[in-house]
Every structure is written in structure tokens, then in C-alpha cells.
Fold:
Amino acid sequence: MQKHTGAGRRSLRRRFGRTAATLSLLTSVACTSTQAPATLSDAANPDEVTVATWNMCGVRQWSCEGTGSPKDKFEQLRTLAGEFGVRVLLLQEVCSDDLLSSARRLGTEWHSVFEPYADVDAAGRGTPVDCTGQGKGRAGYGLLAASRLTDVELVPTEQPTVGLHRGILCARVPAQGLRVCNAHISLRESDDKHPEWDFRDDQLSSLVASAATDARTVFGGDFNAPPPVGTGNTSAWIWPAEAYTTYRECDQKGDSRVGHPTHQDGSKIDYLFTLLPRTACKVVDTKASDHRPLVMRVNRPAAAPTAPAPGVSTSG
Structure:
């Protein structure tokens, strides 16, 4: 995947408001716990639901040539669904046709939504990124669930003026009683015109603000940033105050921000947060990506009316 390893710095850009993605294609296809969660070896029960986030490294031109074939990546998805009981997946760097194929192969109850990445030029024109090699379709991020997805929403957030637009995609999963938000946060220095600008703080703030509209939200994804710990961590300032306090991260223990590594370089850059009580958490080994899936089990929330979140709504 595209991974930046340089030191972070406070954003120097002026606050010019929310910059919506130039290309927005939504495709729809038919009580906090302060204790460390258990492992997923414990049997789940009907009162719990399991969610995972995984950067699949399916865009082969982004240094993903040696991370397994589309078949290998599908087998990992099947393992997550079968062995670990995952019912909802937040996926990044996935090819659109591969996502559709995976949903069909997993079974008729599985549904997906997809949002393409856009490469934006100096004139503000967005071009979708095509997958190359064995990957099929456009490159993007999406949701995959073992039930219908509704109220699909692309959350507005600041994006580079020139360069790659990622984003935040949310949806409700009525069968599981959840709302989920999948975020692929920009790399630092991702604006080709203004490399000194850092968008991660605004994007994370937009993500947390969207999660606050429904207490049953599970949100996470590839944040392209380490946890806010360590004296030499120059990216700690990007994190909203609510992270790790109001919301708890998958394998958070007490007030600690340290989590298990999710990237092959030994860093943690993939996250799952929620207000719901966590009952299990695991980082799953895989040879099908440079990221390892992060899997979290939570108590299934009781049904309760909530105000609809603003934005585009699509049923699948």
C-alpha cells in the first residue's frame, strides 16, 4: 500500500472549509468497557456481533504485487466470515469487481457498498483509479456485510487540492443493530500542490463527528497514523480528544493508547472504535496483504430510534 513513514507536523493550511470529493460514486449491492476485551477464541453468542477492518492491498500498483492474488484475498475474507464469525467488514484498497465477486461467493445474504478513490488534478477534475494486474475494476474502499446495508452516506471531509482523494463511507446494518463507518485517511504530504498541509486531523474529526450521530456506530479503518503515544510521536496532535476517552479502541486496555501492530512494518495504523461494550479483539495474521485484519466483537445494541444522519441515502 502507499505508506508514508516521515515525521508528522501540525497542519499549515488555512481552514478553507469542507472540500467534498470531486468524484462521488456510491454503489449499493443487493456503556463503554474499560477492561481489556477477551480473545476471539471464546465462542460468540446471539447477543454479540463481530466487525473487522482490513486494508486488502488489492491495488497492485501501490506496492501490493507480492501480497497475494485476488483469490488469496478472498480466502482471507472467507476465513474472517467463517472462522471468526465476522458479519461486517470495513475494507480499504479493494477493487470494485473483486468486492462484488466476493459478496456473491460468500452467499446470497452478503451485500456490499463501494466508493472509488479519485485522482484529482490542478483543475479540480477527478479521475477514478483503475486496478491493474489481477485486480479487477476500480480501486476504492467499501463495506461488506452478511445482511442488507441501508442509509449509505459519504461523509464530507477535507481532501487534498491536488492528489488522491480517499474518504469516509458509512451505512446502517439493521440486522446487526449497528451503524458502521469505514475511513481511509490521507497520508501526510498527500497534497501534490501543498505537501506541507496535513489533512488527517480534519478527516479524523469528521469521522468522530459522524459517529456521534448514533451511539450504535462502530468506526475505524486505515488511519495512516500511529496511536497518540510516545514522546517522539509527531502525529499525536491529529487525534480528536474523544478517541480513547469517549470512544474505546478495539484492543485498548484501560487508558493505554498502545495497540497491537497491524502493519507488516510493526506499526499500528488500523483501528476500530465504538461506544458499545467490547467483548473480544484480535489482530489476525495473513499473507494476503501488508496489513493484518483487526477483528472486534461487541455487545449487540438494543433497537432504538435515532435521527437519520445527513447525506446521500441508498438502500441495497
Q: What stands out?
A: The CA atoms of residues 230 and 236 lie 8 Å apart.
